[in-house]
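Let's practice the habit of predicting before peeking. Look at the sequence and jot down your guess about where helices and strands might fall. Then scroll down.
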Amino acid sequence: MASNTICLPVLSILFLLFALSEAREVTVDGWTVENSDHLTKWTHRHHFTTGDVLIWKTSTPLGFEPPVLEVTKEAYESCEISNPLKANVTEVTLNPAGLFYFISGVKELCDKGLKITVKVHGARKHYGAPTQAPALAPETNNMAAEPAAPPTSAASHGLMGGGFMGFVAIGVAGVVGMALNV
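Done guessing? Here is the structure:
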């Protein structure tokens, strides 16, 4: 009986820790010079933590896909593309905590601002649903065009946020604990 009494709290804690430790997959959409200011603002507004995964969607209307490079701070500042840490990045796991620098593999595009810095924190403070980078703003003749509205992800409309998964974990642990007491 004593082992069953200990089992429920231990299982609850294990399930809860597992549910809350899930990394997010974050799509970086709109990797174009026209959208570079929006991407920079987007990365500064979001809280990235170790284990999060950035996934680039680099398709453009012309079919040209500018490569993404992970580089050092010095290469980021000078748009040096010859010696990247990682080349042709389409997906990167953000680990360890710190600053990550990404630039276009086409020097002319990097010089025009196609680059982002991502600050990664060591511990998750908010367990929200995955987010997506802003899509390319619609073309207008107005130079001061409004930024595109941030898109919503399917997960933000569902019940798969970290908080919900914590409740599921506690519920599963409770059912298992009751079954062990029978």
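How did you do? Residues 14-20, 137-165 have pLDDT under 50 and may be disordered.
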